[in-house]
Amino acid sequence: MNIQQTEDTICAIATAQGGAIGTIRVSGAQAITITDRIFTPASGKPLAERKPYTLTFGHILSPEGEVIDEVLVSLFRAPHSYTGEDSVEISCHGSSYILQQVMQLLIKNGCRAAGPGEYTQRAFLNGKMDLSQAEAVADLIASTSAATHRMAMNQMRGGFSRELSALREKLLHLTSLMELELDFSDHEELEFADRSELEEIARQIEQVISHLVDTFSVGNALKNGVPVAIVGETNAGKSTLLNALLNEERAIVSDIHGTTRDVIEDTMNLGGITFRFIDTAGIRDTTDTIENLGIERSFQKLEQANIVLWVIDATCAEVQYRELAEKILPRCEGKHLVIVLNKSDLLPSDNAYSSSSDSMNQDIIGGQTGTPNVTGLESTSSTHRMFPNLPEDTCVILLSAKQKEGISQLQKQLVDFAALPDLSQNDVVVSNIRHYEALSRALEAIHRVQDGLAMHLSGDLVSQDLRECLFHLAEIVGGEITTDEVLGNIFKHFCIGK
Fold it and tell me: The whole model's pTM is what?
């Protein structure tokens, strides 16, 4: 957005189509003047002569004097408005025809149609909020659960900004001590801060930044869903399991090997937690180029997931496990693994693990941490015999995705594995990838500061890393260092009218 564009008066429909009421927002230096040209109050003075924060009833008239609609107009004057500019909100009836007629009249009289996120961008440029608060507006609109709502609301109200402001004060204090040391370096008898004090301040800063970086895994899971990769051989029942979990026919199911050649993603809420299920291409040796690309993506998604559902055909479980163990188990380091023994309905009654999965699943879920949980099998020892080298965070569940038997037990285990904390509106949690990247770079910089202090490097070298840490924190809230490219990339994802 260039300077000329910020001086334009903009308008946009701010409500979803199909409602009983439709609202049009007008913002800019000429917002009140332009609205006065198309609006006639039912009584009294024109808008330009009225007090702010008032509602005025009247009519929108065409150039020919025809009444287009009866409306209520809300009046706001700079700087006390959402954008910091003179603003008007016109509440019409929700007819798309009426809304378009009013929009056309506003544009003919000097307005310009607003771009995505332009109101919030103007609020940022006019100092009504910092960049992290502006980004929280989009997160608040997109929130789908109590947790995502609390995260966005806390950030929009400045919780994250206050945390960064406190960090900045500590960094500036540390920087000032270092630069005083440089200014008076020729006076050896003067000491403004000994190195142990500087190291303690740096340690405090590192702890706060490190904590914020660590919260991203929780914030990202709450915002985008806990990623759950469904992997296994072809025809093991991965797509059938996805459909059973979602309770809809989301993926194509076929007896033909290699039906799923690309990843399929969908989300659902379990126990108040959003899970993002990723059905992947079946893993097997094949000469098909397209299928091999799908298998490569399967491994990529497996590595990105927090929880892995390894689907194995229970009728040939040990064979499938041996064939893929070397490919799957190393990629499950640090993840929760669930071995899903599918097709229990096809097992003979005298099979070692063919007992009713629904009844037997109740016995094992919630076993001791660090021990593979076994659901529907005779014992933990038999599990180790059939499936050697299982990671500690492993659960084995017997079910039938086709018959939807054992699905509820799998869902319970997913909720247990997610183990996301309950958040209050005061908890500062990082959920924005841009913030996470900036904090990670700031953390690297403060680590260099700590190393420099420990090695007794000269103050000018340490100060450079301090300034870099400050720069990366400033990237989050915006300011002089924020480029038009960064702003454009952030606000282009907003909805029109916000």
Answer: 0.70
